[in-house]
Amino acid sequence: MAIADVTSLPVGLSVHSARPHESRLVDAVVEECHTDNLPERLIGDRAYDSDTLDADLADRGIEMIAPHRRNRKPENKTQDGRKLRRYKRRWRIERFFAWLQTFRRVRTRDEWRAANYVGMVQLACIIFLLRELSRF
Predict the structure, then answer these.
(1) pTM score, two decimals?
(2) Which of 16, 57, 92, 123 might form a disulfide with 62, Cβ 3.0–4.6 angstroms?
């Protein structure tokens, strides 16, 4: 899982097994943020529509923006159209993951140890950041 900023550059990154649901891993990714301030908003897909996740992130001062699942009752809806307009910007995190897929050792996990795989993902993120700095 990853947190990216407005320019699709990585801010926080965490690698876990595929067994737990993504919404349970959000706290670990927020802990791994490498910036001084936590993000004000997180944008996620329908899987992140959870009242407990919203409450946990609100305690940290983070607003979760995610469209409601189809089985959500109308009286329990928390998102309105104004906040969901920001959901259109979710393509930026998808672009970050597309950039990661350009590295073969990240795309197919050939590494036996998880620490080696995390190192390869971090190396790819460093390359992204250096490319961005070379533009200036």
Answers:
(1) 0.70
(2) 57
Q: Rounded to whole angstroms, how far apart are CA atoms 52 and 78?
A: 12
| β-strand partners of 73 | none
The boundaries of the domain holding residue 10 are: 2-134
Buried/exposed 116-129: b ≥16 CB within 10 Å, e otherwise: ebeebbeebbeebe
Name the domain count of the chain: 1
60 vs 56: CA distance, rounded Å? 7
3-state SS of 18-55?
A: CCCCHHHCHHHHHHCCCCCCCCCEEECCHHHCCHHHHH
Name the β-bridge partners of 3. Answer: 12
Q: What is the pLDDT of residues 33-80, one digit of tens each?
A: 877 788 888 888 888 888 888 888 889 888 888 877 777 766 656 666
Is residue 121 a contact partner of residue 101, using CB atoms and an 8 Å limit? no
